[in-house]
Design brief:
The complex is a heterodimer of chains A (390) and B (331). Chain A has 390 residues and is an alpha/beta fold. Chain A is 33% helix and 21% strand. Chain A has a single domain, classed as 3-Layer(aba) Sandwich (Peroxisomal Thiolase, Chain A, domain 1). Chain B is α/β, with parallel strands linked by helices and 331 residues long. Chain B has a single domain, classed as Peroxisomal Thiolase, Chain A, domain 1 (3-Layer(aba) Sandwich), CATH 3.40.47. In chain B, the strands form 3 sheets. In chain B, strands 1, 2, 5, 6, 7, 10, 11, 12, 13, 14 and 15 form an 11-stranded mixed β-sheet that branches. A two-stranded antiparallel sheet of chain B has the order 3-4. A two-stranded parallel sheet of chain B has the order 8-9. The longest helix of chain B has 17 residues. The N and C termini of chain B lie close together (9 Å). Classes of the chains: A alpha/beta (390), B alpha/beta (331). Chains A and B meet through helix 3, strand 6, helix 6, helix 7 and strand 9 of A and helix 3, helix 4, helix 5, strand 6 and helix 6 of B.
Chain lengths: 390, 331
């Protein structure tokens, strides 16, 4: 299967605990790892460390819509790189992944409802004012296809994949795609209940890993067909070359032990990108630091790619759920563009069960193609192939 | 995209036959339920508990919530309705569109937090509160191993789901795709609907289209799944055509979702989706009605304010909340 349209990455934006914006992020990637801390944004009995975004610029109307503020910040940075002052008259699609922003989960509203069955509607109105993709579409004044992808932790990668499909089918000429998610009490409680939240800083693929740290952020790409970019005199060396997605059809929360769906997703991504496995210069893994994810993902990648350099960036950002696939796609593209990848923060001791040894230091990239993988609740697996064209 | 099979779970019952029966015989009365936010009984087209009892189909999902069960049963029925074997499970995808997802499960999880505290919540409730749990169960129940995507928009989840399925089929990612719309209506949503819309007293008082002060509705819930493929198969000989603002040739019948803001004037128009209750994925019900109309060559009588002239439609346009239309025609 080889798809005809070349899709360029003409803009990128990233917001996470590693930094607001790409320059700050790259700077953080060169420093020793950040230390997560107990959540300060809301009250909780749980003291598990998390990665919060500090000093997020947010207009007052988005004070209680943090995911939207995160997304808008990343979208603004990505659009700035395109050199476009506005998108009017252009055929633009919006595909954004999230988890928290898709749910009517306002505890204040719900507590009031439980008290007297007559809750005020402010939280509902806020929720109904537009879901994430519709909100960004409205902000930008575009009316192409718009979806909020809610595939749990692969949402951001799947949103990018959906946008790639639109562009290759001619449904739009440009797409803003990625993911955004805020720290929220619901997943904090949920991941604790599942027993996968770590009491210490996460250590992806480390033998002594003890779970994940939640994070928040947004990672967004502006994707554009080559003719669309050429028509406005824009160029980019970065290509979104391939996408694959497949489910395990196995379990709601546990990955298939042999990485069944992940293998198919990777194979599909490589095929659509017309890239061989030995052309992959590095892999930005999902690498959550949970026992099961890292065991299955690591052993699958070791089997498929041997000693290809790989890393997890969750030691810098935490697990940002619906934003993770978007952020990590941006980080993968940055690795190709900058010619180096950061140390896989938190990794110290190799684990025979995972079979992989992530890079321990800033590492030079040799090659022009890279892979980003995402695994999710529901057995969803997504893989993106990004190319750097010299 | 050819419609190879349709499955539906709603207040009308289970299976596409349940919709066909109501199209032929007229609307059924909604359930009148007690709700804590108003003294009068509240009308809702709710899926009956008995409809969701299927020990064989649901054998691997005893802990699943109603949202997931509705989705799985409708997806299974779509496949059975098609009467075909899927040759390669890895070549069949799932796209599930929803506006609000499994919100009663989310609220149950919030109950846990409020009653037991942050450190004593149910992991099962949490894992089911995630929107894509239902699509995961569909994949497991049917042994499908292709891509599975769950997406949300408030205005046009079924339209967007079809667009995505079309790209998968056109680009050879899949040979067939199960595309569905799923909504659940719990007590909190009933309260929100009562605050936002005019609630009809009963099924005879539903006022679609241009009723002063907005349409009066009865909320509903359910799941509708279509098995779609590149080639014609199954009982319909009907295909989805263009998904966009205009189509050639122009439709000779419009099917309009209940809350559609503008009625087209270019051809007769009808509305049937409210027979299963009003919900954000009503367009999926409209499309199922359209497929039956094309298959049977019958335009069913209207219970709404809009009169249908005698037509033998060959091309149907379905209009939802936005101006993006879905066109259905004979294969």
């Amino acid at each position: 299967m080889s798809l005809p349209s070349t899709v360029l990455i003409t803009g990128m934006g990233a917001v996470s605990a590693a930094g607001i914006g790409i320059p700050a992020t790259l700077k953080a990637f060169q420093r020793p790892r950040r230390e997560p801390a107990p959540v300060t944004r809301f009250e909780s009995l749980l003291t598990f460390p998390v990665f919060e975004v500090e000093n997020l610029p947010a207009p007052p109307e988005l004070k209680k819509m943090r995911t939207y503020a995160l997304a808008l910040t990343a979208v603004s940075e990505a659009l700035e790189q395109t050199g476009l002052s506005n998108l009017k008259g252009r055929r633009v699609g919006i595909a954004l992944g999230t988890t928290v922003a898709s749910q009517l989960n306002d505890l204040e509203f719900y507590n009031a409802w439980r008290s007297n069955y007559a809750a005020p509607m402010e939280a509902v109105d806020r929720f109904l004012s537009g879901n994430l993709a519709a909100f960004i579409a409205k902000e930008l004044g575009v009316n192409g296809p718009a979806i909020t992808v809610v595939n749990a932790c692969s949402s951001g990668a799947d949103a990018i994949g959906a946008a790639l499909g639109w562009l290759q089918s001619g449904l739009c000429d440009m797409a803003i795609a990625g993911g955004a998610d805020e720290l929220n009490r619901i997943p904090l409680c949920g991941f604790n209940a599942l027993g996968v939240a770590s009491a210490e800083a996460c250590r992806p693929f480390d033998k002594n890993r003890s779970g994940l740290n939640l994070g928040e952020g947004a990672g967004v790409m502006v994707l554009e067909t080559e003719p669309s970019a050429a028509a406005r005199g824009a160029e980019s060396n970065l290509l979104l070359a391939g996408y694959g997605s497949a489910v395990d059809a196995y379990h709601l929360t546990a990955p298939h032990p042999e990485g069944r769906g992940l293998r198919r997703a990777i194979a599909q991504a490589l095929t659509t990108a017309n890239v061989r496995d030995d052309e992959i210069a590095f892999i930005n893994t999902h690498g959550t630091s949970t026992l099961e994810n890292d065991k299955v993902e690591g052993s699958t990648l070791a089997d498929l790619f041997g000693n290809t350099p790989m890393l997890s960036t969750k030691g810098y950002t935490g697990h940002t759920l619906g934003a993770a696939g978007g952020l990590e796609a941006v980080f993968t593209a940055l690795g190709l563009r900058e010619g180096w990848i950061p140390a896989s923060a938190g990794f110290e001791t190799s684990d025979e069960e995972t079979g992989v040894i992530p890079v321990r230091e800033k590492t030079k990239v040799h090659g022009a193609c890279a892979l980003s993988t995402s695994l999710a609740f529901g057995g969803s697996n997504a893989a993106l192939v990004i190319k750097y064209r010299k | 995209m050819n419609i190879q099979g349709i499955g539906m779970v709603s207040a009308l019952g289970r299976g596409i036959d349940s919709l066909e029966t109501v199209l032929e015989t007229g609307p059924i009365a909604p359930s009148m339920i007690e709700v804590p936010f108003r003294p009068a009984l509240f009308p809702v087209y709710a899926v009956a508990k008995e409809t969701l009892k299927d020990k064989t189909a649901l054998s691997r999902m005893r802990r699943a919530d109603r949202f997931s069960k509705m989705a799985v049963l409708a997806a299974i029925d779509a496949l059975q309705n098609a009467g075909i074997e899927l040759h390669d499970p890895a070549r069949t995808g799932v796209v599930l569109g929803t506006a609000f997802g499994p919100h009663p499960t989310v609220f149950s999880f919030l109950d846990d937090i409020l009653e037991f505290g942050d450190d004593a919540v149910s992991p099962t409730l949490f894992s089911h509160s995630v929107h894509n749990a239902a699509a995961s169960y569909v994949s497991v129940a049917l042994g499908l191993a292709g891509p599975a995507m769950t997406l949300t928009t408030f205005t046009d989840p079924f339209h967007q789901s079809l667009l995505l399925a079309q790209t998968w089929l056109d680009q050879g990612v899949c040979d067939s795709v199960l595309v569905g719309g799923v909504e659940e209506c719990g007590t909190v949503m009933e309260y929100i609907v009562s605050r936002k819309l005019r609630i009809a007293d009963d099924e005879t008082n539903i006022q679609p289209f241009f009723a002063e002060g907005g349409p009066s509705v009865i909320p509903g819930e359910g799941a509708v799944f279509f098995l779609l493929g590149r080639e014609p198969a199954g009982p319909y000989s009907v295909q989805f055509g263009q998904i966009g603002s205009k189509a050639e040739p122009a439709p000779d019948l419009w099917i309009v979702d209940f809350e559609c803001p503008a009625l087209p004037s270019s051809a007769p128009a009808g509305c049937w989706s409210h027979l299963a209750g009003s919900m954000p994925t009503s367009t999926a019900v409209s499309c199922a009605a359209g497929a039956l109309i094309l298959k049977n060559g019958t335009v069913y009588s209207q219970t709404s304010l809009v009169k249908i002239e005698t037509v033998q439609p060959m091309q149907i346009g379905c209009i939802g909340h936005k101006k993006t239309n879905i066109y259905l025609g004979k294969s």
